[in-house]
Amino acid sequence: MNQPVLRVLSVLLLLGGLLAAPPVVVADDKVWTGTVRARSLNVRSGPGEGHNIVGKLRRGDKVQAVDESGRWVRLQSDKPEWVSRRWLTLPDDFMAPAFSEAENKFLDWVADRGDLEQLSVDDAGRLSIVLADQSRDDTHAAGLAEEIGCAYRDQTKFDGEVTVTVWPAEGPENGWVVQSTCP
Hints:
By secondary structure, the protein is an alpha+beta fold. It has two domains: 8-20 and 97-182, no CATH class; 32-89, SH3 type barrels (Roll), CATH 2.30.30. 17% of the residues lie in helices and 33% in strands. The chain has a five-stranded mixed sheet, with helices on one face. A five-stranded antiparallel sheet has the order 7-6-5-2-8, with no helix packed on it. A two-stranded antiparallel ribbon has the order 3-4. Helix 1 (101-113) packs antiparallel against helix 2. The chain is elongated, with a radius of gyration of 18 Å. The protein starts with 7 loop residues before the first strand and ends with a strand. Mean pLDDT is 81; it is low at 1-28.
């Protein structure tokens, strides 16, 4: 991230107990200290058991966590080092974006609606959403996207155009479903 003002905020709204999260992007320089809980913990070259073991940690070892992908935590290192989050004790604010009070109220409003599975927000007026009910038509999705975008603009006092992209639940590989802009 070359622009010092840019910070990407990501929030995953987990409904129905689902945890299918893509990597979360955080601001540069954010590091959380965690403690290993397992007697012996494999350090892997990537997020998942299919990656090579590149080291081991012991119970009580301190780690510096900088990112996560699903249930895997990336450690601060000059090479990729990942461990299972299950075996770490991390601070409550691990990977929690630093939102304003207005942004938090907006996120609470979105969560209470119950019609979104996922929401990502960045500070350039772009939001991405995944609908909880994928069976609805594109017209419904466009209307919902516009409603969410305008609510974001109004509730957070964002000064500018807000564009909301609706993505399919299976991921972005096949492109977005619909985009809507709140002027």
